[in-house]
Specification:
This protein has 11 helices and 12 strands. By secondary structure, the chain is an alpha/beta fold.
């Protein structure tokens, strides 16, 4: 069996515990650099039957898939498929597999960490304390507040449990509603109006792209905090910047952005009411190994 890995950069697969199992099962065509372009990706996988995709920066567009006539399986490390033309894959009989659920605990914990960091002003307090200052009395208590969860997949459901665990009232909206103990289902506009915290846990799709914009921020409380560990493009970046700069909302915790890596001079980097992390919520050793093992098994099975 020949397996193409076109984009393990920075390398996570090569150093993982599952690498020897993968190497024992077939011939590996391996790259630890990014393809850099559609042409670069085509060059690396043009004759591939099985591809193990590591980075979402590799775009499997219709043009790329058309240039790979032998491709039958695309195994993705991660849950997002917004970098893949799924309709084109279906037309060409290419099976696309992801690794659902393996990062749910990690991302949910990171979401809670971002929320606490924003509500408690932890990065600013840490920096001030290191400068010899002693700022106090700026934190917000979350117990008894309302947490609005948008999307109740594996990650959103897990985060809802964590939010309830610190004493928050949890309300939610999801594409496919289902009963969850302790979670009140509400309409989306009602969620924006009543929530002290709005946390985003949706897949990026044509339906969800830009779904949180100026109109939605206008519904939120001035004291509201937005947390996004899903995809940056779900939130209109310009509208979020305006809401934060004008204090239309109180703050935001962001792990994902419209352009990644976040440019050094991006306006987010100058705002004191934002906590930023580099799309790392799901990258713990535990989640990494579980996801890679699942992606590899989908190929070898």
């Amino acid at each position: 069996m020949r397996i193409h890995i076109p984009d393990d950069a920075p390398p996570v697969l090569r150093s993982s515990a599952v690498w020897p199992e993968l190497a024992a099962r077939g011939e590996l065509v391996y790259y630890d650099t990014l393809p850099g372009s559609e042409d670069g990706l085509i060059e690396r996988i043009a004759d591939a039957e099985r591809v193990l995709n590591i980075r979402s920066s590799s775009k499997f567009t219709e043009r790329v898939l058309a240039a790979c006539p032998r491709l039958r399986l695309l195994s993705v490390w991660g849950t997002g498929t917004d970098h893949i033309d799924l309709a084109a894959a279906e037309r060409r009989g290419i099976v696309v597999k992801t690794t659902p659920g393996v990062s749910a605990v990690s991302i949910a914990e990171h979401t809670l960490a971002l929320l606490l960091a924003v509500a408690r002003h932890i990065p600013a307090a840490d920096a001030a304390t290191r400068r010899g200052e002693w700022p106090r009395g700026q934190s917000v208590e979350l117990n008894g507040k309302t947490c609005g969860v948008i999307g109740l997949g594996a990650i959103g459901s897990r985060f809802a449990q964590l939010a309830a665990g610190i004493g928050m009232r949890v309300v939610a909206w999801t594409v496919h509603p289902r009963p969850i103990a302790g979670v009140q289902m509400v309409e989306l506009d009602e969620l924006y109006r009543m929530s002290d915290v709005v946390s985003v846990h949706l897949r990026l799709s044509p339906e969800t792209q830009g779904m949180i914009g100026e109109a939605q921020f206008a519904l939120m409380k001035p004291s509201a905090i937005l947390i996004n560990t899903a995809r940056g493009a779900i939130v209109e970046e310009s509208a979020l910047l305006a809401a934060l700069e004008s204090h239309r909302i109180a703050g935001a915790g962001l792990d994902v952005f419209a352009v990644e890596p976040l440019p050094p001079e991006h306006p987010f980097t100058r705002l004191p009411n934002v906590v930023l992390t580099p799309h790392c919520a799901g990258i713990t050793p535990e989640a990494l190994e579980a996801g890679l093992r699942m992606a590899v098994r989908q190929i070898t099975d």
